[in-house]
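Project standup — Tuesday

K.O.: blocked on the structure for the chain from last sprint. Re-posting the sequence here as requested.
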Amino acid sequence: MEEALKILEQLLREDGKGFVCLTGVHGIMEARRDRSLLQTLNRAFLCLPDGMPTVWVGHLQGHRSMRRVYGPDFMLQFCARSEMRGDRHFLYGGNRGVAEKLKDRLEAIFPFIKIVGTYTPPFRKLTADEESELAGLIDRSSPDVIWVGLSTPKQERFMAQHVDRFNTKLLIGVGAAFDINAGLLRDAPDWVKSCGLQWLDRLLREPRRLWKRYLQNNPSFLINITLQISGIRRFKLD
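H.V.: unblocked you, prediction finished:
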């Protein structure tokens, strides 16, 4: 977490440009099935481990210092550190009213934070007029950071498609962090997260929406990572 924050702070200081993906088992398995998503993850300025299983695999592969970068915590730590730097933030995503609630919550926690705009997109693809409206809004507000709160792989594709179009330095996809940090979705207890069981906590609370994601991706991840670590099969990363 600390290393990722420092790298992004350097990008902002140097007027760089890029997007950041926080990826767990779901994102990895979606990328296994969708080559365009794999290429998008490979294009990211940073692709960070947002899940304990990915951290454990990293440890098995020799990356002993690897730690989880959990979206909601990462967002709060980034905002805390950027408050005094004067970074300008834009919130894109969530259901109707979520971005505004998140803005209010962040401004209550960080009194000096600069949140210069919010936008709630429709569930469908943006029309040409909506794309133009959004680009104009971002151009006028000139944020340093756009936080993207959509589901995977929607947010990854959105960032890859717009990173060069928008007047901003950095896009960061944080998914459910919008709902959690806005106080609309209960976060899992720390012990559940450290045990790698956050997926089960979310599944029990949203079974109708999430059952397919977890019951399909988790067993497939276990099988594929076992094959890779054992050396039986190697997977291409591009």
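K.O.: great, moving the ticket to review. The chain has one domain: 2-174. The mean pLDDT is 90.
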